[in-house]
Amino acid sequence: MTISSPLRLATSLFTATYATRPALAASAPGRVNLIGEHLDYNGGPVLPMAVRRRTAVVAAPAAGWWAASSRDSSAGPFDPEAAPSGRWTDYLAGVVRTLRGGGVALAGAQLAVASDVPAATGLASSAALTLAAARVLARLSGRRLGAAALAEIAYHAEHDEVGIRCGRTDQVIGAHARVDTALLYETGTGEMRHLPFRLPVHVLETGVRHTMAVGALNERRAECEAAAVTLTGQGLLEGPLASLPPDRLGEAEVLLPAPLARRVRHVVTETARVHAAAACIEADDLAGLGRILAEGHASLRRDFESSCAEADLLVETLLHHGAHGARLTGAGWGGAVLALLPAGREREILRRTRTMYEAAFGRALTAWQSRPAGHARLEEIPD
Q1: What's the whole-number average pLDDT of the chain?
Q2: What's the pLDDT score for residue 217?
C-alpha cells in the first residue's frame, strides 16, 4: 500500500456503505519504539518514532452511530454506551464516551476506517485508530483539539474505556510526531525533545499476534506496581519505579521475589538505555545505537519475559548477518522486530533472515521499512 491508500480506501468504503460522500477525514500513524519498552507506565523515558503507515477515518453526521471497516469488511451500527465486547468498534465507542466526558457534544456519525498499520503487531494500530477517530469526531462537532488534548483523549479511550492498561507512548508519539525525528519523551515529567533521526528502520513481523487487553501486559504492569509498593515501603523508592537509582538496584533485588526483581532490573536498565540511545542519535553513533537495541532485546527476553521464539530467532539472525541492532518493539508476546541495517547490505541481510525464519516456522516473513513520519492530522477527502 502507498501512504495515501488508507485514505482513498476509507473514502471509497464510506461511499459504498452509505451512498454518500464523507464530510471530514483524518489519519494517524503507527509507531515503532526504538527503545524504552514498558517504561511509560513506570514513569520512565521512551524513544519512539511514527511510521509512514497510517489509519484513516472518514465521517459524516448521522442519526445514530455507524461504522465500517475495510480490514474485515464489517459494517453496521454500534452503541457508544455499550460495554466493551471485544470488537474493533470498542475503540470508537471509547473515543465517543471520552469526548462526551470532555464536553464535546456528539449526536451520531457514519464512519469508515481503513489502515495499513498491521493489527496486533505492537505497532500502535489501536492508538492510530483512536487518534484519527478523535481528530475527525471532534472537528465534526466543531471542536479543534491541540496535540496534547488529542493524545489524552486517545489514551483515556483505550486505557479507561476499552480496558487496556497501556501507558501514553503510542498516543503521544501519534499526536506529536514530526517527519525525520524520534521523540524523547520523559513520561515522568511530560518533557519532550525531538531528535533528528533520518535513518530507515526495518520492521519484521513475527507472525504472532497479541491481544493486550487481557493477560500478560496487565500481569506485568501489576508486577511492576507491586514491586514499587514494596520498594517504597522499604524506603528505596520515592517516585515511579523507573526513578530507582541504578546504584540501588542490587538492594532492591534482594528485597523482591525473583520475578519482581527481574522486572525491576529491566525497568532500571532500560531507563539507562533510553538516555544512552538518545546520546548515540545526537552523536550519529549508529553502531552504539545498534548495540543498545540488542541489549534491550536481551532484557525483554531474560528479565521482562515478554519476547517469543519468533522474535528471538529474528533478532539473533539479523545480528549474526550484520545488522547494527535489532529488538522486539511494542508490548511483546508477538508483534514485530525492528532492525537497523547497514546501507547497501539490506537485501542480503533480509534475504538470509527470511530464509532462516521460513525454514524454522514454515510461513512467509513480512518485512518493510519506514523513515520517521508525521503526526495525526485532518486530511483532504480525495476525489
Answers
A1: 95
A2: 86
Q: Express as a percent the part of the chain with pLDDT over 90.
A: 91
Alpha carbon distance 39, 272 (integer Å): 11
Distance in angstroms (rounded) separating the CA atoms of residues 96 and 162:
12
Asked if the model's pLDDT at residue 207 lies above 90, the reply is yes
Residues identified as active-site:
170
Q: DSSP H helical segments within the chain, as ranges?
A: 5-18, 89-101, 125-140, 147-156, 169-176, 216-233, 249-255, 258-282, 286-302, 309-320, 346-361
Kindly tell me the burial class for residue 188, based on how many C-beta atoms sit within 10 Å of its own C-beta (0-12, 13-18, 19 or more): middle
Residue pLDDT, tens place only, 266-295: 999 999 999 999 999 999 999 999 999 999
Cα–Cα dist 91/213, whole Å: 12
Residue range 306-337, pLDDT digits in tens? 999 999 999 999 999 999 999 999 989 999 99
Q: What is the pLDDT of residue 137?
A: 98
Residue 212 C-alpha cell reads as 493486550
Domains of the chain, each with CATH number or no CATH: 5-198 (3.30.230.10), 202-370 (3.30.70.890)
Residue 311 contacts residue 206 (beta carbons within 8 Å)? yes
Taking CA 198 as the corner, what is the angle to CA 372 and CA 136, rounded to the nearest 5 degrees? 20
Q: CA–CA separation, 79 vs 86, rounded Å?
A: 13
Q: What is the mean pLDDT of residues 66-93?
A: 93
Burial of 85 (0-12, 13-18, 19+ CB in 10 A): exposed
Q: Which of 126, 137, 153, 162 is nearest to 57 (CA)?
A: 137
